[in-house]
Amino acid sequence: MRNIYKIMIVILTILNIGVLVKNVPVKKEIVNDVKVNIKTCFGDRVIREDVPLEDYLVGVLYGEENPTVSTSKEYLKAFVIFARTYSLKRGGFKNLGTNLSIKSCSSDQNWCDYESGCYRNQTEEMFNECINFSLSKKTKKPYYSALTCANRVTTFPGNKSVSNKTFTVNNSKWPSGYKKVAKSSTITSIWKKKPTDEYLAFLKSVVKETEGLVLKDENNNIITIGYMVCNSNSSSNIMCMNKAKSLGNKGYTYLEIIKAYTKKYKNIKIEDYRKNI
User: Which residues lie across from 186 on neighbouring strands?
Assistant: First the structure.
């Protein structure tokens, strides 16, 4: 008889728990469904669509920083947080489900397709696109000079052939302001090969360790931030990559590195951008 009572108590307990669980609001799962449309440097031609943000950042880490396994991981984590913050702000993030729109060049962020490799600087296609974009502006002076088009750092997905390509600049039909190119009439596109599995795992691990983390101000807004190759100890919203890297080599944590370049903001927060959305 006692066993029957025990069984009934267990059944009633389970049913009661079921009722309680049913009435508890289910916490919405955090889903990373923000994707990136990667565009050419000039114009609006899309070269990759719907790249998940975290995968995109692996390509940015490879294309912009190209670290070695001996590079300070604390610096690299700070870099990725800056890059993610920049991506969301620059790409027009509004809510989950947003497709960001970002150019693959130095005016936004250099991205390299880690599944195949990329050309590290201008290809003939990109160079001509720059010239045509500039000519379409129909300004009295060149919107972009040919020299600017030749020197603009950009990355562009390749055809999986590990090789450099040299092309000759044909400027016979350009207005006089576009004639000046570089010292040579040829430009070489340098191939950046697909990373090894071991190196790719290293890049992915850096991004994974900071997944979703961005910089927010005291009002919970994603801040305006950037980074560039320089050596300054500036406390503005621009992280100087060379100096920040040296801080990492000196033993600074990624939090300390970030703090050094965000002093203009009060009560800055580092948290998942998907929180409270």
Answer: 168
Cβ 65 vs Cβ 244: under 8 Å: no
Among 222, 223, 277, 212, CA closest to 54: 212
Domain ranges of the chain: 35-115+197-272, 118-193
Angle at 90 between CA 249 and CA 141, to 5 degrees: 105
Q: Tell which residue, 258, 200, 261, has the closest CA to residue 81.
A: 258
Residue 97 has what DSSP assignment?
T
Per-residue pLDDT of 32-76, as tens digits, reads 579 999 999 887 789 999 999 999 999 999 999 888 888 999 999
The pTM (predicted TM-score) of the whole model is 0.82
Question: Which residues of the chain are modeled with pLDDT < 70?
Answer: 1-32, 159-160, 182-184, 232-236, 276-277
Q: CA separation (Å) from 263 to 79, 89, 234, 251, 266?
A: 16, 19, 9, 20, 7
